[in-house]
Design brief:
- The complex is a heterodimer.
- By secondary structure, chain A is an alpha+beta fold.
- Helix content of chain A is about 30%, strand content about 20%.
- Chain B is mostly helical.
- The radius of gyration of chain B is 24 Å and the shape is globular.
- Classes of the chains: A alpha+beta, B mainly alpha.
Chain lengths: ~550, ~325
């Protein structure tokens, strides 16, 4: 009788322990992704496809990487030092790291990997400042630069700079990346790949060196990860709602209500690191005239584009950098925005008149020297592009500009722009997590004929080039982002690209089955799960 | 007959080569640089050019053609730009799944279309005939992709009777065949409508001939008149349609394979088209050309089987 009080205490204790254990992620199970595209290879130098990066992030690792707060942190290294002249970087590697087959990782492996990346990788040009990589000893990698480049380690977090094993690459030859083994250092190994059907990964039990910002340092909770190849949007969403797929990293807007109305589906939207834009071919009259370009920009009302063409799943964009890109001028946004043409149709008409365009015959279309203001607007096939083009056509007509819409198949669109060069205006979308790379890719004159089909040969181009170049090499992050903000101002002034909207990226998953997804989305890169570093360590199957 | 078949096969070779040549030229004319599409937008012009050299795309068109043709006749169908693996094994790996889908689609279209056509022809101007005609019009009118999604919604999502996508485990296993039901129905039903119309009109024409009147006047049962005397002759146009439709069905399988994530050649070719993977597209078209030739030959042979008076020398 004296010990009767023990019973409820023990019961309470056991209950608390049980609930605590239940709240902990449990190991095991198979997580199934519905992928909208199948990578052609898992060789890190194979391509820049987002889906490849998403899968590779389970198998391979970088020398350092971005933490969830956006700061660069060591991953397979411990620290790094830079010489005073900024030309020599010594990276101290972690010891005790092995490939999946047990072979220890040394500096030689990094030399091989990085040489491969800069010789055959899809972003080889990004490493132009590198002179050579040297293995000083087993655990010291030296990077010798031709010129100071403070962002070199940032570049080495790109998708083509994952650590690979030289022996495996050479043994597999052409089949490296398409067959097992891949032999990375990450939490998963490639178990099987049935082309057109699925890619299957298996947990590596030896993984124990997860990044500090992850709640789990390894091994991963989920035993197997399957990537089912489901190109068709409706099929992928149905498989999710029927419970045959656990996560879909992309849900088309047209099927939002199907996903949202299904039981136990969580759908989250985040603004992407991309921008829809209207580009102008500054080699063509009359858009070679900055007053005409400003007039076009001022005629555009972004709200119908967002609400109608993008069905409300976007935010209007007023500067050429997305809020989800590293380098977005958080503190000087209004200051930068002031350099971009405001929406004002009356002012647009005034600019056009000042440029000599007048409606002489009263038909609503402006003329100059007997020639009508008639522009071609090139767009791609797809759901939103023709709608956006029609909205712009209507808005430009209101200020007296006639546009002819030319629709080109998506696969040939950019090639057609560069090769045919017949466009006056075009609709495009692009982006990248790092503004410091994205803006030169889009706006630098060295990108003309490639990723810059606006032939950015305008008066402000040299200024923009210099600012974007200096942003790469300034020693502090504050300095780099400050230069980027200045570059954005001049980009706005030149008005060869008019930002229209920042799209959102929808991710949906079965919340009664999968845990850990919210933690991944909270990352600064949670705009897209293809760039959230080693989030695979967070996921678990709920029991 | 053997001589005839041999001669047809020999004449098929230049036909297939001519088709392959047209496809080769079309792929080089279509806008889009495969090297740029593969290596991505961040590559330097030097990298893109290096890849073009690796693919042989820097050579003059005539040289590219001669090289390609020489390899083709030696059985080397080139390598995929995307996967860098040989095209022939890539297609061969996917061929069984496409064949399975096409065969079952064909069985469904014939198995539904021909009997219904016979029913309609033997019960003209009745409710059965009108219903069959209406069904045929509906079937011919509806787009295949629309039917596929509707079947998914009904049988996969609402009723949970059938799998939504994938091909299951193995080939010709129960699981595989279970996954095949919806794709095969989506492929076969629109064509069933066409066979229904052809069977009905063909049989009606035969049933109006004098020899059928003679057969009936002899007191033969209607069953014998229709199935033993009339149907054989009515099959000729159906067999003609069959020969035309087999390649169509393989082409139609492209859409069905994409919707149902059925890993056949069609879904491979769709991705190849988007990525300008020339050799995969060329390989598929050569294969399709061979299928057209073989199916036409099969039709001609079947004529001889159905109607022994048809002879080939």
């Amino acid at each position: 009788m004296k010990r009767v009080w023990l019973f409820p205490v023990v019961l309470l204790f056991l209950t608390a322990v049980t609930f605590t254990l239940m709240a902990q992620p449990q190991a095991g199970g198979r997580l199934i992704w519905g992928l909208y595209e199948e990578p052609s290879s898992l060789d890190p130098t194979g391509s820049t496809l987002a889906v490849q990066h998403m899968i590779n992030d389970h198998i391979f690792e970088h020398i350092c990487d971005f933490a969830d707060d956006g700061t660069l942190q060591p991953l397979l290294c411990e620290s790094w030092t830079v010489s005073e002249d900024g030309l020599v970087w010594d990276v101290k590697l972690k010891s005790g790291i092995t490939f999946h087959n047990g072979k220890p990782v040394t500096a030689e492996d990094w030399v091989y990997t990085f040489d491969r990346t800069r010789n055959i990788g899809p972003r080889a040009g990004f490493y132009a400042s590198v002179d050579k990589y040297i293995a000083v000893d087993d655990y010291t990698l030296r990077i010798v630069l031709k010129n100071p480049f403070p962002r070199i380690l940032e570049m080495l977090t790109l998708g083509d700079a994952y650590l690979v094993d030289k022996d495996t690459v050479e043994a597999m030859g052409d089949t490296f990346g398409v067959e097992a083994p891949l032999n990375g250092t990450g939490p998963y190994t490639l178990k099987g790949w049935v082309r057109g059907e699925y890619i299957l990964l298996e947990r590596w039990e030896g993984y124990d060196h997860g990044p500090a910002w992850r709640s789990n340092q390894g091994p991963a909770y989920v035993e197997e990860v399957m990537w089912r190849i489901l190109h068709e949007d409706s099929t992928r969403v149905f498989e999710l709602t029927e419970g045959n797929v656990d996560i879909s990293p992309y849900v088309p807007f047209s099927l939002y209500d199907v996903a949202q109305n299904a039981p136990n589906i969580e759908l989250v939207e985040r603004v992407r690191d991309m921008t829809y834009l209207l580009g102008m071919n500054t080699k063509h009259e009359p858009v070679d005239d900055v007053m005409v370009r400003w007039a076009i920009a001022m005629a555009i009302d972004r709200e119908p584009i967002v609400q109608v063409a993008l069905t409300g799943h976007a935010e209007p964009a007023y500067i050429g950098c997305s809020p989800s890109q590293l380098g977005f001028p958080q503190n000087s946004y209004e200051e930068v925005k002031a350099f971009y043409p405001p929406q004002d149709q009356d002012r647009s008409r005034m600019y056009l008149e000042a440029a000599g365009w007048i409606d002489e015959d009263g038909d609503g279309v402006l003329e100059k020297d007997g020639k009508e203001l008639r522009l071609s607007l090139w767009t791609q096939t797809g759901a939103e592009w023709p709608l956006m083009a029609q909205i712009l056509q209507t808005q430009l007509a209101e200020v007296g500009i006639t546009t002819e819409i030319i629709t080109v198949e998506t696969g040939t669109f950019y090639g057609a722009l560069n090769q045919q060069q017949k466009h006056d205006l075009y609709l495009g979308m692009s982006g990248y997590p790092f503004g410091l790379d994205y803006l030169p890719f889009r706006h630098h004159t060295r990108s003309i004929g490639g990723s810059n089909p606006s032939f950015y040969d305008v008066e402000l181009a040299p200024t923009i080039d210099r600012l974007l170049d200096i942003a790469q090499v300034l020693p502090t992050e504050e300095g780099r982002y400050g230069a980027l903000a200045e570059g954005l101002k001049f980009i706005g002034q030149a008005s060869a690209y008019v930002p229209l909207a920042w799209p959102v990226y929808p991710v949906a998953w079965k919340k009664d089955r999968v845990g850990g997804v919210e933690e991944a989305l909270d990352s600064i890169f949670g705009t897209q799960l293809d760039f959230t570093v080693l989030d695979c360590l967070e996921y678990y199957i709920k029991q | 007959m053997l001589t005839y078949i041999t001669r047809r096969l020999i004449f098929a070779i230049p036909t297939v080569l001519a088709i392959a040549t047209i496809v080769f030229l079309l792929m080089r004319v279509v806008p889009g640089d495969p090297a740029l599409l593969i290596i991505g937008p961040f590559a330097t012009p030097e990298q893109v050019e290096k890849l073009r050299v690796q693919f042989g795309l820097d050579k003059p068109l005539v040289q590219q053609y001669v090289t390609w043709l020489g390899r083709l006749v030696r059985g080397d169908w080139g390598k995929s730009f995307q996967t860098r693996s040989p095209v022939l094994p890539l297609l061969a790996e996917r061929f069984p799944k496409t064949l399975l889908l096409t065969v079952f689609g064909l069985l469904i279209s014939l198995g539904i279309g021909v009997p219904l056509g016979i029913l309609a022809a033997t019960r003209t101007h009745t409710f059965v005939d009108y219903l069959s005609t209406a069904t045929a019009v509906f079937g011919i009118s509806m787009p295949m992709f629309w039917l596929a999604i509707v079947l998914q919604l009904i049988f996969g999502v609402s009723l949970h009777w059938l799998p939504l996508s994938g091909s299951g485990k193995g080939l010709l296993t129960l699981d595989n065949l279970w996954h095949l039901v919806l794709p095969a129905l989506s492929l076969g039903l629109p064509y069933a409508a066409q066979y229904l119309r052809f069977a009905r009109s063909s049989l009606l024409e035969i049933l109006g001939l004098d020899y059928i009147k003679v057969a009936r006047s002899k007191g033969l049962s209607e069953w014998r008149v229709v199935y033993l005397h009339a149907l054989r002759n009515a099959l000729i146009p159906i067999v003609t349609l069959l020969g035309l439709r087999i390649p169509w069905m393989i082409g139609g399988a492209v859409v069905i394979e994409t919707i149902f994530a059925w890993p056949g050649m069609g879904s491979l070719v769709v991705r190849a088209i988007y990525n300008r993977d020339f050799h995969v597209i060329e390989g598929f078209m050569v294969f399709l050309a061979i299928m057209v030739v073989l199916s036409n030959l099969m039709v001609d042979v079947l004529y001889g089987v159905i109607n022994p008076t048809v002879k080939y020398d």
